[in-house]
Write a structure and sequence with these properties.
The chain is an alpha/beta fold. It folds into two domains: 219 residues, 3-Layer(aba) Sandwich (D-Maltodextrin-Binding Protein, domain 2); 98 residues, Periplasmic binding protein-like II (D-Maltodextrin-Binding Protein, domain 2). It is built from 14 helices and eleven strands. The strands form three sheets. It has a five-stranded mixed sheet with strand order 8-7-9-6-10, with helices on both faces. Helix 1 crosses helix 11 and helix 7 packs across helix 12. It is globular, with a radius of gyration of 20 Å. It starts with 12 loop residues before the first strand and ends with a helix.
Length: 337
């Protein structure tokens, strides 16, 4: 989904990893290709590596990074990895081209974009922003379309009921609020972390149904799913344990340490890393804990398909949308040990 990354990804470059605990003599190997080298964003994987959960499942994990979801899908289809981590849009586009890919684990369960206002403001809902100015990082960023769809649902039209102005990201967004040049901001993951770090506490005005626009998750080919269910059960069990470990505030220091394996540059500014980690905790927590980690909501998939059709990214509905995702392994992944 997101075009801008924290650092440029090196295509096909593996990260050197070492599982410090619970080594095994016979480990099955899994290579996973990610659309960016995000150690903090993929904290669950690195926590599961660092805490030895994959080793306990007799798995050796090799993460690799490429530049974007489309490239991740290409690497998967080329046999360079067993799993990929693309967004739902590129996956559905690939299925529309006849590639039988299956989204098996919903990792970023919430939208990485948000319509936010300072906590001290009087605005409580999107409709309160009628006649107001919404700051954006760039004029054509994906977050702009996301926030526009929120206002569309309220019957509010750009230009007549509100307007966007480009203020940039990070400190420029902070300045926009402090100078009262903007009333709200179309924020992405890093933007929310920056505003929080600079002392601007935020209130999200994103309606619950828009929070269901989930992001990237784990994808395999149908053939691999059918032939390696046991392997994927072991993978998902370890990943769920890594997620739970990461979401426990008591493990914050260990999570940040493990995340260095994936992208040490993200940890160079520790206050920013900690603020960013708080955002990722929210993005990866289940919308409905009773459904378990990794669960795919059929309603959320329908929402995504409608959005992609409206934007023209899909020319026609998929023949069978339910084949784009699977919840078959959710029970096994979330079963108590």
């Amino acid at each position: 989904m997101k075009r801008r990354q924290f650092i440029a990804a090196a295509a096909g470059l593996p990260f050197a990893l070492a599982a410090p605990r619970a080594l095994s003599q016979a480990l099955d190997e899994l290579t996973i290709v990610y659309p960016s080298p995000g150690g903090l964003g993929y904290f669950a994987l690195y926590a599961a590596i660092g805490e030895g959960y994959f080793a306990e499942e007799k798995l050796k994990i090799t993460p690799r990074s490429v530049n974007g979801s489309a490239a991740a899908i290409q690497a998967l289809l080329a046999g360079q990895a067993q799993l990929a981590h693309p967004g739902p849009g590129p996956l559905m586009a690939a299925r529309d081209r006849g590639q039988d890919l299956v989204y098996i684990y919903n990792y970023f369960t919430r939208s990485q974009f948000n319509l936010v206002v300072p906590e001290t403001s009087a605005f409580q809902k999107p409709a309160d922003l009628k006649g107001k100015v919404i700051g954006v990082g760039t004029a054509d960023g994906a977050e702009v379309a996301f926030v526009r769809s929120i206002f569309d649902a309220e019957g509010m039209k750009e230009g007549a009921d509100y307007k966007f102005i480009t203020v940039g990201e990070g400190g420029m967004a902070v300045a926009g609020f402090m100078q009262k040049a903007i009333d709200a901001y179309a924020s992405d993951t890093a933007g929310a972390a920056t505003l929080s770090l600079r002392g601007i506490k935020l209130r999200s005005l994103t309606p619950p149904r828009f929070q269901s626009y989930f992001g990237n998750g784990y994808v395999v080919t149908r053939k691999y799913l059918d032939e390696n269910r046991g392997m994927l059960e072991r993978f998902g069990r370890a990943l769920v344990r890594g997620t739970k470990f990461g979401l426990d505030p008591a493990n914050k220091a260990a999570v940040l340490k493990h995340a260095r394996m994936g992208n040490p540059q993200q940890l160079e500014n520790m206050p920013f890393a900690e603020a960013l980690m708080e955002v990722y905790y929210r993005l990866t927590a289940p919308l409905d804990p009773a459904k378990g980690f990794g669960y795919n909501s059929p309603e959320a998939w329908e929402m995504w398909q409608k959005t992609l059709l409206a934007s023209g990214d899909l020319k026609k509905p998929l023949d069978d949308l339910s084949k784009a995702y699977s919840n078959d392994l959710i029970a096994a992944w979330n079963a108590p040990k």
